[in-house]
Structures are given as C-alpha cells and as structure tokens.
C-alpha cells in the first residue's frame, strides 16, 4: 500500500508516541494486562493512521468535457447557488463529503489553467453543515477548463480536520485527475459548475476520485 507524502511526519510521530506510551506501561507494570491492552490499542491506532494516508492508484477518466470526482466520498448536496467569491454568478453546487474512512487525496476534477487560488481561515463546523462552505477553513481554486468553461472548487476542513494541503498555484496548468492536495481527517469538497451542466450524480451516491463522472460541461 502506497503512503501519501503528507502522512510521513504524522506516521513517524504517532509511532514514537505510541511506542513511548507502551514502554512506560511496561516499565511501571511489566508485561501485564494493562501493557498488553495499551500495545494492542496502540497497534490498531497506528494501523488506522497508516490506512488514512493511503494513496491508491486509480484508472483515471480523462475527458475535457467531463467533471470527474475530485475525492472519494458521498454526494451530500446538489443545488443552485449564487457563487460570490470567484464566479460572481449562479452555479450548480455539487458537494462530496469524505468520512475519516475515505481516501483523503484530492484530485483536479478538470484540466486547464488555474485562474484563482486562495486559502481562507475559518471555523471548523461539521463538514456536512450547510454553512461550512462559507464559514470553515477552506481553499478555493478557480479554473478555466480546456474547453473554455470556468469552474470553482473548494477544499473544506471539517470538525476533525485541521489542515488543508493545496498544491494549486495561480497561472499554472493542471492536468485532470492530477493531485491538487490532501485534507487531513474528515472533510468536504464543493464544486461550483455552470448552470447548464448536465449533472450525472444524485444526493446519496458514493463516488470515487478520478473515476466517477460528476457532470458533463456544455461547450
């Protein structure tokens, strides 16, 4: 299993802390039930941390007219909204919620030029809260697709998540399904698409990053 680079420091730190705790139990009480319990619990926690930072290989769907899922998770919102940060127009919002058990690598849903990239400090409401897109800590990325359409998508921190990693830089070109970043421990991604987009998912659908088609953009 490949481990994402964003997990290296956390995995090492977790290993040291868990090892130190188990060692303390052993020094004070020997190899008794309490030490065995600590060792077992620490092992399960460490394996969970490793699994969280997995970076799976995907068979990517590449098409200039399609919006591909930027993350693993579940569709929780599809609605028409007024997007005032970048698009300054009505858009269809499609939101993917990631639980702590999902892969947390984020990918570009489209290919094209990065027109806008901005990090916003904010709160840590639960990721499925309607206001989390506007109130939570988040990073917004605006793109001009290869076919000329303009979209915005956001990485949003949740109640548990405390750090968003984003590689997008204004002015650069991004390939569809290449990695845009990572959100650590529970979060959401919102996509804001043109109102004439053909949405191909519905609320409750489970999606896989790089593989599930979210929408078709008209030319």
> Could you give the order of strands across the largest sheet?
9-5-6-7-11-3-2-13
- The proportion of strand residues reads 35-45%
CATH structural class of the largest domain: Mainly Beta
Helix content range:
10-25%
What does the overall shape look like?
A: elongated
Task: Give the integer mean of the pLDDT values.
Answer: 89
Name of the CATH architecture of the largest domain: Distorted Sandwich
pLDDT < 50 stretches: none
Summarize the structure in words.
- This protein is 21% helix and 36% strand.
- It is α+β, with helices and mostly antiparallel strands.
- It folds into two domains: 5-52; 66-216, Glucose Permease (Domain IIA) (Distorted Sandwich), CATH 2.70.70.
- It has an eight-stranded antiparallel beta sheet with strand order 9-5-6-7-11-3-2-13. Strands 1-14-12 form a three-stranded antiparallel beta sheet, with no helix packed on it.
- A hairpin with a 5-residue loop joins strand 2 and strand 3.
- The termini are far apart.
- The relative contact order is 0.21.
- The mean pLDDT is 89.
Write a concise keyword list for the protein shown above.
219 residues; Glucose Permease (Domain IIA); eight-stranded antiparallel sheet
Task: Indicate the topology.
Blueprint: H1 8-29, H2 33-52, E1 66-68, E2 73-83, E3 89-98, E4 105-107, E5 112-120, H3 132-135, E6 138-145, E7 150-157, E8 163-166, E9 173-174, E10 179-184, E11 187-193, E12 198-199, E13 206-207, E14 213-216
Helix pairs in contact: 1-2
